TrEMBL record:
This is XdhC family protein. It comes from Pseudomonas atacamensis. Transmembrane segments: none annotated. Residues 17-81 form the XdhC- CoxI domain. InterPro entries: MoCofactor_Util/Proc (IPR052698), XdhC_CoxI (IPR003777), XdhC_Rossmann_dom (IPR027051). Residues 169-311 form the XdhC Rossmann domain. It comes from the Bacteria.
Length: 323
């Protein structure tokens, strides 16, 4: 299934090329109970067709009604849904939630289409971008994004939105811990891929929402299976799978690389990777080993929780001493 943001941008580009004005909406901030995360997109054309989601229903209906009534003719605006006194909002969110939405009116011109094509390339994993929107004029700029951090950075006069491929979790080999990681990650909205060539390991395994590839994870990685929004984790205790995956992963732009094992096991693995794999100290420094946050985890589910928590920490640009 395509990343929903990619579907939104591609459809918006089609409408713009066809000469239609569009409104591009981005969830900026959520407070309390809100159905969609910051960065979620929705696009509407002047004919009332739409794609994407902001809330799961009520906000979309209100917004479409307002567009049909001729609202949102300014270049850019921020609308608050939920509790508050914003006259442009006529709905309340469940459980008292609040949703701030950036609304951009985009005319059908070459500059808009070039901007949307840049967003499309980022959502395909070809690059990561920071999209900056001036809240007064609606001016848009794109910058290379070389950091991990919050999806939305909001200031008084502008917002910056991180644009990249769907967050991917690549599981190098199957184990009970990998099973728990996959289940957590699917719930968190990751695209999850499991690579394992061992028929005996995968016999009877059921992983809903996970793409299973019966091949060595190192081969999948070497063939371009990682982009900058990929986390690679090896959780099998089998050096033939784990070590080879690490050797290939450090040569990619994956934002998180980790392998399971005790401190002693990790030290032995690093020595093998130096001696056999020829990895440099800089490459070894990219590998989180032992993997995950130190939560005193013992069971597969507890270890998986520690792993996903550490991945989320890195993705959000939070240092360990800030926890």
């Amino acid at each position: 299934m395509q990343h929903l943001d990619l579907q939104v941008v591609r459809r918006a580009l089609e409408w713009s090329v066809a000469g239609q004005r569009i409104w591009l909406c981005t969830v900026l901030t959520t407070y309390g109970s809100a159905p969609r995360a910051p960065g979620s997109l929705l696009a509407v054309n002047e004919g009332g067709q739409w794609i994407g989601s902001l809330s799961g229903g009520c906000v979309e209906e209100d917004f479409l009604d307002r567009v049909a009534e001729g609202a949102f003719l300014e270049a850019v605006s921020v609308v608050r849904y939920g509790k508050g006194d914003d006259p442009r909002s006529r709905v309340s969110l469940p459980c008292g939630g609040i949703l701030d939405v950036l609304v951009e009116k985009l005319d059908a011109d070459c500059a808009v289409q070039a901007h949307l094509r840049e967003l499309e390339s980022a959502l395909l994993g070809q690059r990561r971008l920071l999209r900056e929107v001036d809240l007064a004029s609606g001016a848009r700029n794109l910058f290379a994004d070389r950091e991990q951090g919050a999806r939305i950075e909001r200031e008084i006069d502008r917002v910056r939105i991180r644009v990249g491929a769907a967050q991917r979790l690549l599981l190098a080999g199957y184990s009970s811990v990998a099973q728990a990681c996959a289940e957590f990650a699917v719930g968190l909205g990751f695209e999850v891929i499991l690579c394992d060539p061992r028929d005996e390991a995968l016999e009877g395994v059921v992983l809903n929402g996970v793409e299973v590839r019966r091949q060595l994870p190192s081969v999948f990685i070497a063939d371009g299976g990682c982009h900058r929004d990929t986390a690679v984790v090896a959780l099998t205790h089998d050096p033939r799978i784990d070590d080879l995956a690490m050797m290939e992963a450090v040569r990619t732009e994956a934002f998180y690389i980790g392998v399971m094992g005790s401190v002693q096991t990790s030290q032995k693995r690093f020595e093998r990777l130096r001696r056999i794999g020829g990895l440099s100290e800089a490459e070894l420094a990219r590998i989180h080993a032992p993997i995950g946050l130190n939560l005193g985890s013992k069971t597969p589910a507890e270890i998986a929780l520690a792993v996903l928590a550490d991945i989320l920490r890195i993705r959000s640009g939070i240092a360990r001493d800030q926890l």
